[in-house]
Amino acid sequence: MGKILITGATGKLGSAVVRSLVRKVPAADVVALVREGSKAQWLSDLGVEVRLGDYTDVESLVKAFAGVEKIYLVSAVAFSDRVGQHRNVIHAARMAGVRHVFYTSIQRVSDDYCPIEGVTASDLETEAMLKSSGLDYTIVRHPLYADVLAMYIGKDAPQKGFSAPAGQGRVALTNIDELAEGGATLLSQPGHEHRAYLLNSGQTWSFADIAAALSRITGKAVHYQPIATATFIAAREAEGWPPHVATFIGDWYRAIEKGAFDQTSRTLEELLGRKPKDLEDIVRDAFKL
After folding, report:
1. Domain count, the chain
2. Locate the NmrA-like domain: which residues (predicted)?
């Protein structure tokens, strides 16, 4: 097997993929792409090769991708030129002779149902670029990350309850570490060319279910109050959130309420060789209970 490069290797997802991957393949076969070497000493300590590169700098990417067989492309952050950055990675991969690109996309029921501004359209365009690139590709679709649940419903939800514009919508919350482990398994195996995989917990839960789980864990009643999206956005802006961030999270909630994330898969369970964490474990982790 040739070298496997993980982009965004000091970020939450990328770092988790690296940690999992070095338990499956020799560390010498793993390359970590970072923008700042000063944050990467821990990667070197793992025995991983650290290379510098930036999604906005094609020349740096071509140099970083030399001798690499597979790339795990962690999608660029929202509120940036995601398509342009992904195009640079794909172009550099072709120039460097990379064979296979794995791209992290967002779970969706269909291409046109309840799109999320700043994410869905760029995911679709990136996937189309990969399919026409001549490279082998794998699309790895992720759900809402359980790790950010406290940001969505408030850090004080276990004490005060919470309101959210989710209605009775359901989500397959999944921890980043488990998604990373699933991704590392895909990377370490032969095959998976020209495939799309949905990775999630295999179960969906409503926000009322989340409140009930908090109640069981804390031993006191925790209530969930559905509210309108406009009410949520106004409240977040009053707390000091930038309007574009409040609207962005409101869009995610709108998609949840309309059922855009009410879809399950057993693929992650199969890759892990065990069931992913259940709701109570997810809630305990998210709120450190």
Report:
1. 2
2. 3-262
What percentage of the chain exceeds 70 in pLDDT? 100
Exposure letters 178-197 (e unless 16+ CB within 10 A, then b): bbbbbbbbbbbeeebeeeeb
> Exposed/middle/buried for 143, CB within 10 Å: 0-12, 13-18, 19+?
buried
Q: Is 245 exposed, middle or buried (0-12, 13-18, 19+ CB in 10 A)?
A: middle
Facing residues of 164 across strands?
226
pTM above 0.85, yes or no: yes
How far is the C-alpha of 168 from the C-alpha of 171, rounded, in Å? 10
Cα distance between residue 7 and residue 33, in whole Å: 5
Quickly tell me which residue has 């996937």 as its tokens.
127
Domain of residue 151, residue span:
144-174+201-263+277-289
In a domain? residue 190: no
* One domain for residues 152 and 206: yes
The model's confidence at residue 7, banded by pLDDT at 50, 70 and 90, is very high
Q: Is residue 69 scored above 90 in pLDDT?
A: yes
What pLDDT, on the 0 to 100 scale, is given for residue 155? 94
- Statement to judge: residues 100 and 224 lie in one domain: no
